[in-house]
Amino acid sequence: MSSQVFFTDLRATDSENLLQKISNLVDKAGIKQVVKRKGLTAIKIHFGERGNTAFIRPLLVRPVVDAVKAAGGKPFLTDANTLYVGSRGNAVDHLKTAVLNGFSPSVVDAPLIIADGIDGRDEVVVPIGLKHCKEAYVASAVARADTLISLAHFKLHETAGFGGAIKNVGMGSGSRRGKMAQHSDVAPVIYFDKCIGCGTCMDQCAHGALSLVDRPADMPRPTPEAKKVIRIDAKVCVGCAGCIHSCLQGALGVDWEADIPPFMERMVEYTAGALKGKEKRSLFVNFLTQISPACDCHPHSDAPIVADIGILASRDIVAIDQASMDLLNAQPPLQSSCIHGSPHAHTDKVKAVYPNVDWQHQLDYAEEVGLGSRSYELIRL
Question: How is residue 35 annotated by DSSP?
Fold first, then answer.
């Protein structure tokens, strides 16, 4: 059976501006039906890494906050801390980054709460009994909320293929232990012929899993001066991939064939955990704006790969992500973007950037475990 996905474009007039269109969108999608009167409503959002500029603009969040209040709920904006070293690894830095990125309570008219506490350890253990995860470690503010509303900036992602509602809820709602469980098999692969032994990746490892050792005489060297090489302690590594992003030489990578499908499945299972008990009290909103080729966790944003498309809302988390990918793939690539010239740029935007990532696996598995339907009816407002 097809699920309803509501869509509004970004056109505006004197009689209806974008803020009013967002209000109308969430109203049509059923926000009054999902918000529990006098209940705590978690608005799950990504506050953006410091230096990133593609995240949802705080001004566009306000209509959703106002709609929750009009429905009788008590909204708060929330996200959980990160595994990697950055500006959101603990609640103090996270809140400071959120405010610097414009998410001031005076702008959004709602308090900001870091879902897994000061150091990422405030969690609720949720039984889910799925293939990889028998239980999920969900950030407490999300788990204990009466209603969950996901506001996701839709973009591409290095390991998930794309980041939409599923990733925002599943990965984003995991506590530190929950994020480690999802990343557990995504251990970096070292390309020794590229490693120059600079140690930059070590600065990005919050877990002490990396060290520099003397390079064996028979190991390939990118330069004669490369006398050291990186080593990874697999027992300590949590698979957060922060070191991969930091290496300018491309000496660290992922075993795509072995690691990525299970990672996607665990992320989907955590989505089920975050939504447990709130299946009928959840709403998902995807912003298809400034669609960047990588996650908002980077301290920068590359040029958008397509022109801004619009905003979607649905009560089906699978349908909204499927519709988002379909709308994205239907757009012509921007000449100023990294996908311009790729043979896949007009048909499969993920493949144009990450040729080894099968993004459809995320949706297939989400449908398999009962999170929703890939079949949808797009209702244009």
Answer: S
Measured CA to CA, the distance from residue 29 to residue 312 in angstroms comes to 9
CA distance linking residue 80 with residue 143, whole number of Å: 12
- Per residue, what are the HEC states of 283-312? EEEEEECCCCCCCCCCCCCCCCCCCCCEEE
What gap in Å lies between CA 198 and CA 345, rounded to an integer? Answer: 35
Do residues 41 and 26 touch, judged by C-beta distance below 8 A? no
Tokens of 290: 């400034």
Mean pLDDT for back-to-back runs of 10 residues, the chain (381 residues): 96 96 98 97 97 96 98 98 83 96 96 95 96 96 98 95 98 91 78 92 87 92 91 82 78 72 96 97 98 92 96 98 98 96 96 95 98 98 96
Cα-Cα-Cα-Cα torsion 180, 185, 191, 194, nearest 10 degrees, comes to -20
pTM: 0.86
What is d(CA 224, CA 358) in angstroms, rounded to the nearest whole number?
38
